[in-house]
Write a structure and sequence with these properties.
Blueprint (H helix, E strand, L loop, with lengths): L3 E2 L5 H5 L4 E7 L4 H16 L3 E7 L4 H6 L7 E6 L2 E7 L4 H13 L2 H17 L2
Parallel strand pairs: 1-3, 2-3
Antiparallel strand pairs: 2-4, 4-5
GO molecular function: protein-disulfide reductase activity
Family: Belongs to the thioredoxin family.
Organism: Marisediminicola antarctica
Length: about 130
């Protein structure tokens, strides 16, 4: 599966869709981004059940700012609309594979229960 370019118009709809979405925040002038691109593209070919997306931080500065991107490349992983991983830096292929496997193996019932617990704790301290 080829990677999809995300813009501000489609970002939220894409990352909140059911399933797994990986998002690579990058820029054309970024050396580590260029080194990571073929690794990311190869993984997209191996995992047709995962949406691989890219955000050009130069073209989408407002989106990158809203996502809190301070260093590129930054990889984010969303599962069923929940941000479950975010890390700056280019990953080698084995590390990217570990991230994908870990996201696939998440028990989302546990994740949602933890989110609800955290929300309850923050509401009780207000």
């Amino acid at each position: 599966m080829a990677t999809v370019e995300l813009t501000n118009d489609v970002f939220e709809k894409t990352v909140t869709s059911p399933g797994i979405t990986l998002v690579d925040f990058w820029a054309d002038w970024c050396g580590p981004c260029k080194a990571f691109a073929p690794i990311y593209d190869a993984a997209s070919e191996q995992h047709s059940d995962v949406t691989f997306a890219k955000v050009d931080t130069e073209a989408e500065q407002a989106l990158a700012g809203a996502a809190g991107i301070t260093s590129i490349p930054t990889l984010m992983a969303f599962r069923d609309g929940v941000l479950v991983f975010s890390q700056p830096g280019a990953l080698p292929a084995p590390a990217l594979e570990q991230v994908i496997t870990a996201v696939k193996e998440l028990d989302m019932d546990v994740v949602h229960a933890e989110i609800a617990k955290q929300r309850g704790a923050s509401e009780s301290t207000e």
